[in-house]
Amino acid sequence: MIEAKKLADRFPGDFVFGVATASFQIEGASKADGRKPSIWDAFSNMPGRVFGRHNGDVACDHYNRLEGDLDLIENLGVEAYRFSIAWPRIIPEGTGPINEKGLDFYDRLVDGLKARGIKAFATLYHWDLPLALMGDGGWTARTTAYAYQRYAKTVIARLGDRLDAVATFNEPWCSVWLSHLYGVHAPGERNMDAALAALHFTNLAHGLGVEAIRSERSSLPTGIVINAHSVYPGSKSAKDRAAAERAFDFHNGVFFGPIFKGEYPESFLSALGDRMPLIEDGDMATISQPLDWWGLNYYTPMRVSDDPSEGAEYPATVNAKPVSDVKTDIGWEVYAPALGTLVETLNARYKLPDCYITENGACYNMGVENGIVDDQPRLDYIADHLSVTADLIAKGYPMRGYFAWSLMDNFEWAEGYRMRFGIVHVDYETQVRTIKKSGHWYKELVEEFPKGNHKSA
């Protein structure tokens, strides 16, 4: 096991240690104070979509337990908290009237963080699209990008003076491909044309959101959070290497290219460009406005081989054999070196700003025994990935912070409540929080790292 003190000594004094959550996953109170349904409320209640038809009606009851949860974050000693804001609380229909009670909740959240000396990192969109917008097509409609722009402007006008950073989107890969092509997440589409429309209009919404944020508060550090994939070919064969390159463009390039280069990857456009929605004049300039930072969410590598099957659609890849036999309880391969390779590869291909690891963690489902949750594998996972992050800093990469996913066990999307990522255990029947072994270790790490101690990298 990596000692907390030795690891803490490897980070510069301005490095930020934090924890992260998302609104739909923890808040509950799905019908309280003017909130209206999101696409995830509808999706969760459809048979066969979410494990056990679990839903977000109660979740971790964070909406009603806000002060206690803020105390919990303070008790962990972390410097920053990354949270998301629920669009259906702010503008319940997606367009139309603003719900002041929704804004009041986030006022209390941000003020509570400030009172405790904790930095506020807000995410404007973490997948809970107001359900009413599906009447216009949801993310497959260009109008949704403009509805998002108004929502972003509304939030920043109210909260921007107290935020330390803001992200436009969390993991657009999930809300585009996983939600519109693979059908695993809401709204559950399995259609390439729908996915391509969602891709461009999500990218456009990001750019419009950046404009909205900066029009309200130009000094607020603005970025986006991307779950970039560390893509490895299944073998050294030319076909597998070519498949890995196509997969990189499809899973990473369609976001990094428009945002950081102002263009979609050439291989992607040659394969699917004729099926893309109309890219209007000025779209790419809007999407590619310079950012102050970007966030990387990383959990597991992607290993791909060429798929020779007839009719296979771009990028035509299949899963290759993992290198590591170690898997988490959700079945994801554990391979920390991929994090370092990914950061190096992305920086070689794109001109990137400062980077925060905005999510990193592991699913292990240990329960409470005698008041203790012994989740040693999660502790090891976090320590190993932090060690890789320290290596990147030593190589000169601008890694500015790390947010453990997640603060607490929560609604894990299509997996419902059966999968646990928290460094704090939640008993969903009693809502009792129990800090796990990994949480105590993370607290020790942060305590060994005095804020602003200005160690050299």
Write the layout of secondary structure elements.
Layout: H1 4-8, E1 16-20, H2 23-26, H3 39-44, H4 66-76, E2 80-84, H5 87-90, H6 100-115, E3 119-123, H7 142-159, E4 165-170, H8 172-180, H9 192-216, E5 222-226, E6 231-233, H10 238-261, H11 266-272, H12 283-287, E7 293-297, E8 302-306, E9 317-319, H13 337-349, E10 354-360, H14 376-394, E11 399-405, E12 424-426, E13 433-435, H15 437-447
Parallel strand pairs: 1-2, 1-11, 2-3, 3-4, 4-5, 5-7, 6-8, 7-10, 10-11
Antiparallel strand pairs: 8-9, 12-13
Helix pairs in contact: 7-9, 8-9, 13-14, 14-15
Describe the 3D structure:
It catalyses: Hydrolysis of terminal, non-reducing beta-D-glucosyl residues with release of beta-D-glucose. Its EC number is 3.2.1.21. Keywords: Carbohydrate metabolism, Cellulose degradation, Glycosidase, Hydrolase, Polysaccharide degradation. This protein has 457 residues and is of the alpha/beta class. Helix content is 39%, strand content 14%. The protein has an 8-stranded parallel β-barrel. The protein is globular, with a radius of gyration of 21 Å. The two termini are 22 Å apart.
